[in-house]
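Look over this record before class:
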Amino acid sequence: MTQISKRTLIKAAGWSVLAAAAALAGCGKKEEAAPAAAPAAAPAPASAASVAAAKAEPLKVAWLYIGPVGDGGWTFAHDNGRKAVEKEFGDKVVTTFVEKVPESADAERVLRDVAGQGNKLIFGTTFGYMEPMIKVAADMPDVKFEHATGYKTAPNMRTYDSRTYEGAYMAGVIAGGMTKSNVLGVVGSIPIPEVIRNINSFTLGAQSVNPKVKTKVVFVNEWFNPPKETEAAQSLMNAGADVLMQNTDSSAVLQTAEKAGKYAFGWDSDMQAYAPNAHLASAVINWGPYYIQEVNAMLNNTWETGKSWWGVKEGAIDLVSISDKVPPELKAKAEAAKAGLKDGSLVIWKGPIVDQAGKEVLKKDEVADDAFLGGIKFYVKGVDAKMPGEK
């Protein structure tokens, strides 16, 4: 809800003063015409102050980030989306962000703080903000909240996400054709369905060109921790992986692969510049279109609660900066996958698909709906790893 200043109405009225007709003097004297009426007074020009008061105040929008804006990945991509909002709307909006907000009680404190500063639309950009945000939203019905990657909504809170698993699948197509050891590695962040879905989709993409591949996984249990990400990447390469992917927020995995002479992918943003020799491609997210849509809805008073999940079709997910080291025929397969995702002819999660124990999770020609995708807690066949906590 935008804050609208009171408009000042300037009322100006001019009253004409009519002179009385002159009296006739004497018989036979010529009648004199009555004097013309005085012109109505012109309205006073509006002052600069009144014009400014009549103009609506800008919409204040805030973002909460889990990592630093310079992480080169997840948070960097969200902040690019914020900048796209500024470019699109100019002085109609004022944006702000708070970086490195932990998924803890601090998130609730920061949410209340930015709302108290007059921000009427607030984006929380990580899964762990869900519970604090749903709590604060209940206490502040005049503020609109949007939560990335979550599933809880309220009258003034909606959820949004990007289909990162589509980017993971396209990366997998290239990985499956580039590996020499037939062992791929993924550095995982936190074992939630979003991350598990990406690991599985990466594996399915690789299997589409190379049925022999196996995917090993190491979790670091954090979204952004470059030293841990580096250590996990090294352990995967020690286990035979020669192509790496990540679901973490820094460029550490890619840079570690570069030092070891292996291959890897950028994640969330284009990371080619961090390690040009190791970089095969980057699976990126473009948050700009979604953020522009939602800010526009606020400005037009059409904002609604609900859920959005955008992918290649909506321009939110892409595979970019494919390396010249990727053979043309393999690049063509990745581009064909992208085209199929865009026009709907390719469905990644379509049966038959079995889990790593051989149990059928999707029957032949059965297509997973979003409820299925949102609750994935198993590995597909080909993932050579155990779930955290599994004996």
